[in-house]
TrEMBL record, chains A, B:
This is Gamma-glutamyl phosphate reductase. Pathway: Amino-acid biosynthesis; L-proline biosynthesis; L-glutamate 5-semialdehyde from L-glutamate: step 2/2. InterPro entries: Ald_DH/histidinol_DH, Ald_DH_C, Ald_DH_N, Aldehyde_DH_dom, Glu-5-SA_DH, GPR_dom. Catalyzes the NADPH-dependent reduction of L-glutamate 5-phosphate into L-glutamate 5-semialdehyde and phosphate. The product spontaneously undergoes cyclization to form 1-pyrroline-5-carboxylate. It catalyses: L-glutamate 5-semialdehyde + phosphate + NADP(+) = L-glutamyl 5-phosphate + NADPH + H(+). Gene3D superfamilies: Aldehyde Dehydrogenase, Chain A, domain 1 (3.40.605.10), Aldehyde Dehydrogenase, Chain A, domain 2 (3.40.309.10). Its EC number is 1.2.1.41. The keyword Amino-acid biosynthesis applies. SUPFAM superfamilies: ALDH-like. It comes from Lacticaseibacillus suilingensis. The lineage of its organism: Bacteria, Bacillati, Bacillota, Bacilli, Lactobacillales. Keywords: Amino-acid biosynthesis, Cytoplasm, NADP, Oxidoreductase, Proline biosynthesis. The gene is proA. Residues 6-280, 313-375 form the Aldehyde dehydrogenase domain. The keyword Acetylation does not apply. It comes from the Bacteria.
Length: 413, 413
């Protein structure tokens, strides 16, 4: 029987310890976690094999994400070592000032406290989240997909052993070991203990958490991304970027789902763009104007414009001008990543300023929206909301600030 | 019949215009709003008189907040002029870097979009919120307390006239003119149009919004603030600070509600502290140890430790040591403002680092937690949550960031 209130209390107590640790101690814990993972590879693979056996009726795409191998466990351990090598986000002071009353006011970075994660059957998220929250001084409560329960139990046990070995509270990393809906629901309302809830997974999971939780949520990952090929675009560059953004890894949130093309170049460019995409197995769905130019596309439906395919599918629309492109994007996008291919300076500036998204690109693939690619070293998710953090979230997104105010007897007049 | 979806669409369209304005145009609008308020003082007072007449059965405290006077309207106009004089938070670029692929990545401050405000029957909030959201480039949807409806209608009409006069969309400032619970509830779920919801008012209103809203909420204002008098405290300083924090304005969230005093000085200090507070009409409620020293206190109950009085009441607890003080505060506080009075360096540092609150003070009154006192020039509220903004929120809290990324054909390997 899982008692979430008790888990929350333990997490909060652990968080108070973690918040006061120096960077060296946290790094030592991360390295111990990495060593312990490697040392228990067999035990983790055994647990994972039980999960895989129970999930044998699931599609290959699903079991591929669930499957652990010695190489993947080694990757997880290396990930923890990389996090140990990153700067400590709570070592930072954002700024400070002396106010009119002579108070010295310092704004210091501090951990959030207790982070809740709700995610799908991907055991690597368990280790990633534990490493990032620990480095930023937070305790974490993990609720992974039910199909990964045995793997997650084995992983958290190993991580807790490492924490104990370096003298830290094991409850800094806890697994909600009953992956039922009822308990997930209770977790979404654990406002007394959770400072933030980060859902990771498909649109359905994210929306369920956003609509249900009273704990503050950071919404992540929905990506209906567009590439707009302007009339001044270089065709070869456009082709390389559109193909990369669509096919390099179609299942992820920063893959492009929509191609908008200016009417002045549609007849010249679209046949080459479509052929390049189709050569990579992309199924195209065009509006009337696009199909008049490239007849071997399916007809697009209204619902397509709001759909994130996460697959080798792309919808194509011929656009009258940049204003129409920007309006279309702002109406249908998920505020993730949008790109314009252009050689016109004014067009590039309009697009950068008027498109409402976490990341707006000129002449580059949307696939770069990623903590690793941005140079953050690690990523807890990609925020598509506007509060707290926007775009790829590194360690800093797992912190907040505190004003520390030093006086010498000031009272308010 | 109020159509919130239509209002949301209009707000979003207005927000897209506001986001592209230069600072001078926004300032011109703020000055026009100030001028229009002054010019229509009579009309606003007439509307306010109708609200006051309908609220004649309400307590004086309530009608005092509802009441407008020529001086108060002039204050509101001056407030708008002050906001015009503040720096534009969206003019800032937070930073930038070139990533490994050679992309130039700039993190720019941008408006949130559409801000929703739910507040009580205080017409000044209508004008404050309109000014701050406009300056930060946001549209606002205002839902004030039903008892202020006529005042709010008159005020928003005047503000909209000013917007129209300077060529800006009137829908940048909209009032939800049906202050029913059903419509407030619908507003809390207007995720397609509202980027954030900021409740302002008593604990009941704030909690109702936090528990109901699916729109991201910034929680504000609950303040169960403590002052801990350490054994090394200067008694005269402690007396001045405790009295100031408790009595200077007891109804507000940064007033102190609890006095913790170290056992080593309780017998020496408490009689003088209690007498000073009682001389200002403060009703004291003590624990057993406190009442053994100062018998003329009522007995405290367990519920007191979690209660924000907003009144001339203060609960007193004798504390064994600083660890107990910090643990008590972290268990019962609302993460708003906490202060230690001490002359011991190590104690001050422990308190600053271990107390979990937006603002932690040494040797100063908690009453300084305020945007004006911090030098922000204006305040949209005081955040007691940890995401997005913590502590007094000035104009910057009404912005988010956007990554603008300039490339020259980069694709991801």
């Amino acid at each position: 029987m899982i008692d979430l209130t008790q888990m929350g209390q333990q997490a909060q107590a652990a968080a108070q310890v973690l918040a006061q640790l120096d960077t060296a101690t946290k790094n030592q814990a991360l390295l111990a976690m990495a060593a312990e993972l490697t040392a228990h590879t067999e035990q983790i693979l055994d647990a994972n094999a039980r999960d895989l056996a129970a999930a044998s009726d699931q599609p290959a795409k699903f079991t591929d994400r669930l499957r652990l191998t010695p190489a993947r466990i080694s990757d997880m351990a290396n990930g923890l070592k990389s996090v140990a090598a990153l700067p400590d986000p709570t070592a930072r002071i954002d700024g400070g000032f002396t106010n009119a009353a002579g108070l010295s006011i310092i704004q210091k970075r501090v951990p959030l406290g207790v982070v809740g994660m709700i995610y799908e059957a991907r055991p690597n998220v368990t280790v990633d989240a534990a490493g990032l929250t620990l480095k930023s001084g937070n305790a974490v409560m993990l609720r992974g997909g039910k199909e990964a329960l045995q793997s997650n139990l084995a992983l958290t046990q190993v991580l807790q052993t490492a924490l104990t070995k370096v003298g830290l509270p094991a409850q800094a990393v806890q697994l909600v070991a009953d992956p039922s809906r009822a308990l997930a629901n209770e977790m979404m309302h654990l406002t007394a203990y959770l400072d933030v809830l980060i859902p990771r997974g498909g649109a359905g999971l994210i929306q369920a958490v956003v609509n249900t939780a009273t704990v503050p949520v950071i919404e992540t990952g929905a990506g209906n991304c567009h590439i707009y090929v302007d009339q001044t675009a270089d065709l070869e560059m456009a082709k390389a970027i559109v193909v990369n953004a669509k096919v390099q890894r179609p299942s992820v949130c920063n893959a492009a789902e929509k191609l908008l093309i200016h009417q002045a170049v549609a007849a010249d460019y679209l046949p080459a763009l479509a052929a390049a995409l189709q050569a990579h197995g992309v199924a195209l769905r065009g509006d009337e104007a696009a199909r008049a130019i490239v007849p071997n596309m399916a007809a697009v439906t209204a619902a397509d414009w709001d759909t994130e395919y996460n697959d080798l599918i792309m919808a194509v629309k011929v656009i009258a001008d940049e204003d129409e492109a920007i309006a279309h994007i702002n109406r249908h996008n998920t505020k993730h990543s949008e790109s314009i291919i252009t050689n016109d300076y004014a067009s590039s500036e309009r697009f950068l300023n008027q498109v409402d998204a976490a990341c707006v690109y000129v002449n580059a693939s949307t696939r770069f929206t990623d903590g690793e690619q941005f140079g953050f070293g690690a990523e807890i998710g990609i925020s598509t909301q506007k509060l707290h953090a926007r775009g790829p979230m590194g360690l800093a997104a797992l912190t907040t600030t505190k004003y520390q105010i030093r006086g010498n007897g000031q009272v308010r007049e």
